[in-house]
Amino acid sequence: MNPMDAIYNAATTAAASVGLPAFWLYSTLTGRYRRGRRERFGFVPREALRRLTGSPKVWVHAVSLGELRVAFSVVSGLKLVMPGCSVLVSTTTEHGFDKAVETFGKIDPVIFSPIDTFFSVKEALRRVRPHAMVFLETEIWPAWIARAHAMGIPTAIVNGRISGRSFKKYRKMRFFFKETLSRVDAFSMTTTGNAERITAMGAPRGRVFVNGNAKYDSLAEQVDPKAGEAVKRSLGLGGRGPVLVCGSTRSGEEALLLDAFLRIRREHPEAFLIIAPRHIERAREIGRIIESRGLEYRIRSRAGSAPAPDTSPVLLLDTFGELFNVYSAATFVFCGASLVPLGGQNPLEPAAWGKPVFYGPSMEDFSDAVHLLESSGVRGRVSGPRMLAEKALALLRSPAALKEQGERALKALQRTQGSGERHARVIAQLLGDSEVTP
């Protein structure tokens, strides 16, 4: 064991030893985090192991809800290129676990992932003994990777993404990450830029491939017109004017977006605004901002599933899992975390519904999606609320232009299809399938 491994293992083991009694007591008394406690320490349930009947066995780790879309695409690709394989899916968060069970549970076992300490990952890997260990996106787990390497289990980072902001942090720790990355057998990255960043961090260049973003693969398949119509009815949008949906907004953006909305309402008094904050616990704070603009609003969680009878011009979406279908009700969409320097949100989700999409100057985390949109003729970038209002009003004045921007956005998404299968081929090659090439 090299010195950096020893330091990391000692630090994580000490932290776990100190924190475990307090965590266990808190979980027992409150009920929070009680689910999957044993799994987080490596004790994979026997039932999950019994369901791994195919070969080879591939363990795919998806931290939370966002990575599960990637997991779905990659797992689908694995079963296409290796029809006899079995897959174990792990996730960290409870919301992610529930979604994973819904998505994979009828066919593939789902577990809570072990925490990244030597004893937890050692026990989990000993029980599962996968033929390959797959980490998604930016998941670099030093202890997990080191233990898999020591056991001779091939590892891959798939759909790899390293944002510009994360890269600056990682570069400062290059001396540490270089050793960890040297143990990873393949890096299947989303873009050339991400490939260059992971190489600069220490990944061996010959193990790095570029295969697109699998997160976008399944978006078109998730579009369900019936679900879209159901959302419109439950939101009470019948007969409303143009609808602006602002998705995954962050602190500091709502006031700016309300300024843009008020400008739109001067020309379209019947316009309707839906704000979906990234963190729903901010609902009360956002409500005060809405009221400060002299606007009434209603809260989605209090409306139930029946259409709301009131005529408030603003809806605050404070529920989990609805935003994607809510995009179907939009005339146009704004992607949050982009008017503030937080890297943006996925602009291809509204594109899947054929909606014109706007975003601010900070889209570093989705630069590949922005490139796809803009190379397809989508003019979605705005510098601030004034420009957002001006572009939205220009589209409302020209129904043909409004339709065209939505169609261009959808075509941009369609250009990404097939990434999941390409990533799966990299994994298959690691397992020695001579007929598969990355």
What is this entry, summarized?
The chain is an alpha/beta fold and 438 residues long.
Describe the structure in your own words.
The structure is a single chain. The chain has helices at 3-30, 37-40, 46-50, 65-81, 94-104, 118-128, 142-150, 164-172, 174-181, 192-200, 219-222, 225-235, 254-267, 283-292, 300-303, 323-326, 348-351, 367-375, 385-397, 399-414, 419-430; strands at residues 57-61, 86-91, 110-112, 132-136, 155-160, 186-189, 208-210, 243-249, 272-277, 297-299, 314-316, 332-335, 357-359. It has 21 helices and 13 strands. The strands form two sheets. It has a seven-stranded parallel beta sheet, with helices on both faces. The protein has a six-stranded parallel beta sheet with strand order 10-11-9-8-12-13. The chain has two domains: 39-217 and 418-430, 3-Deoxy-D-manno-octulosonic-acid transferase, N-terminal domain (Rossmann fold, 3-Layer(aba) Sandwich), CATH 3.40.50; 227-414, Glycogen Phosphorylase B (Rossmann fold), CATH 3.40.50. Strand 1 (57-61), helix 4 and strand 2 form a beta-alpha-beta unit. The radius of gyration is 23 Å and the shape is globular. By secondary structure, the chain is of the alpha/beta class. Helix 4 (65-81) runs parallel beside helix 5 and helix 13 (254-267) runs parallel beside helix 19 (385-397).
Strand content: 5-15%
Describe the oligomeric state of these chains in a short phrase.
Answer: single chain
CATH homology superfamily of the largest domain: 3-Deoxy-D-manno-octulosonic-acid transferase, N-terminal domain
The structure class reads: alpha/beta
CATH 2nd-level architecture of the largest domain = 3-Layer(aba) Sandwich
SS summary, helix count: 21
Helix share, percent: 40-55%
- How confident is the prediction overall: mean pLDDT? 89
Question: Under the CATH scheme, which class of the largest domain?
Answer: Alpha Beta
Q: Count the E strands.
A: 13
Low-confidence stretches: 434-438
Strand order of the largest sheet: 3-2-1-4-5-6-7
Q: How far is the N terminus from the C terminus?
A: 32 Å
Q: Measured on Cα atoms, how large is the radius of gyration?
A: 23 Å
The outline comes out as globular
Largest sheet properties? 7 strands, parallel
CATH fold group of the largest domain: Rossmann fold
Please, how many domains?
Answer: 2
